[in-house]
Amino acid sequence: MSVSLRTMPEPEREQREAEIAGKWADASPHLDERARRVWLGTEARQLGHGGTSFVARATGAAIETVRSGIADLGKNPGELGEGRARRPGGGRKKAEDKDPGLPAALDALLDDDRSQAGDPMTPRLRWTSKSLVKLSDELGAQGREASPTMVRRLMYQAGWRLQSNNKSLAKSLPHPDRDAQFGYINGQVTEFAAAGQPVVSVDTKKKELAGNFASGGREWARTGEAPQVLDHDFPGWAEGKAIPYGVYDLAGNEGFVSVGDDHDTPAFAAAALESWWVTLGRLRYPDATRLLVTADSGGSSAARSRAYKKHLAAFAERRRLDVTLLHYTSGTQCRCLSCAKYRGVEREHLGRHPAGRAAGLACLAEGVLRGRALQAP
C-alpha cells in the first residue's frame, strides 16, 4: 500500500528512512546489479510521489539508478536475456572499438626495427624493448586514447608475451648414443634396486657463506624485530664457507648431507660418500655387496677426475664393496637431489638454522648433517 510522504510526520519519515537504509545494507551485498535496481525501484514505488529521491537519499544510490529500477518493474523479466543485468551493448566501449586503427598503430610501433629483437620470420615470438608506458605515451603523441593497461591487453590479444632468453642454440650436435646412455643407466639402477643393492646419486649443493648474512625465507618475529644481518655478502666478511655435499638414497628417499669448510675436492666427495655409508648405508643395507653411484660429469666427482676414482677405489677396498660409478652425459645433471627439492632440507637442517636465519660457524663444526628429502623425484 502506498504511503504519502507529504502527510507523513517528520519522526516517522526519519524512522522510515532508517529502516530502508538498514534493509539496503543487509540486502545489497547479496544482489547483482539488476536485482539492486529492482529492489530500489520497488521501495520507491511503494512510497509514491517523492519516493525516488527519498530512497536515493536513504541508500546513497544515484537517483537515476532508482528511476531505472522503477522502469525495470514494468518490463518483461526475460527481456534482458538470461543471466544479463544490462541490455546488450551497455557499458563503456573498448578503445579499439572507438578507434579501429589503434591495434594497427600499436603493431607498427612494435614492428619498429629499433625496438624489437628476435626472428622476423616468426612474428608471434617477437619481443620488444619498449615498456608499456613508453608505448602508451607514443600512441598518445599520435592523438590516440591509450594507457599501459590497454596496451598490455592489446599485446596479449595479438600474441605478445613477456619472454626471457631461450637457451635453445647448441654449439654442437647431441651425441648419437645419448639416449642409449640414459637407457643403460636406467637399466643398471633397475637391476641394483631389484637385487636390494643400494643406489645413490651424489652432487655438490649450493655453497653458503658462514656469517651474519641474509638468507632466503622468512620466519615469525614481532613487528620491528626482524633479525639484523649485514647489508652485503662480501666473501671477505665471512667466517668461513659451508660446502654441502648431498648423497641421495633412491630406495630410502633420504638425503644425507656432509658439510665441508675448505674446498670441494675429489677427496672430500669420496669422504662424504663414505660418511653416508658408515652413518646410514651399512645399517639400511647390512647384506649389501655392491653399490651403484650416479653423478653428473662435472665438479669434484667429474667423469675425467682420476683423483675421485682413486679415492672411490680406496673406499670400496676398505668397505669391501663392489662400487659401480655411472656418469650422466655432459650438459645434464643428476636431478635426484636437485637444489629445487633439496633447498628446504639445506635451509632447515644446515647447522640447525631455520629458513631465513643466517648460518654461523656452528654448522661447520657439526660435520655431517642429515635431512629427509622433501619429495621423491
Task: Outline the structure in words.
The protein has 377 residues and is an alpha+beta fold. It is 40% helix and 12% strand. It is built from 13 helices and 9 strands. The chain has helices at 10-27, 33-47, 51-59, 63-73, 95-98, 102-110, 132-141, 148-157, 178-194, 266-284, 306-319, 339-349, 362-366, and strands spanning 116-117, 127-128, 199-204, 208-210, 240-249, 254-260, 290-295, 322-327, 368-371. Strands 3, 4, 5, 6, 7, 8 and 9 form a 7-stranded mixed beta sheet that branches. A two-stranded antiparallel sheet has the order 1-2. Helix 2 (33-47) crosses helix 4 (63-73).
Topology overview:
Layout (H helix, E strand, L loop, with lengths): L9 H18 L5 H15 L3 H9 L3 H11 L21 H4 L3 H9 L5 E2 L9 E2 L3 H10 L6 H10 L20 H17 L4 E6 L3 E3 L29 E10 L4 E7 L5 H19 L5 E6 L10 H14 L2 E6 L11 H11 L12 H5 L1 E4 L6
Parallel strand pairs: 3-7, 7-8
Antiparallel strand pairs: 1-2, 3-5, 4-5, 5-6, 6-9
Helix pairs in contact: 1-3, 2-3, 2-4, 3-4, 7-8, 10-11
In short, what is this structure?
The chain is built from 13 helices and 9 strands. It has 377 residues and is of the alpha+beta class.
Structural class: alpha+beta
- The low-confidence runs, each spanning 5 or more residues with pLDDT under 50, are 114-126, 335-377
Give the oligomeric state. single chain
Tell the overall outline: elongated
How many individual β-strands? 9
Task: Give the proportion of residues in helices.
Answer: 40-55%
Instruction: Give the amount of beta strand, in percent.
Output: 5-15%
Can you give the mean pLDDT? 78
Termini, distance in Å? Answer: 73 Å
Element order: H for helix, E for strand: HHHHHHEEHHHEEEEHEHEHHE
What count of helical segments does DSSP give? 13
**Could you tell me the radius of gyration in angstroms?**
35 Å
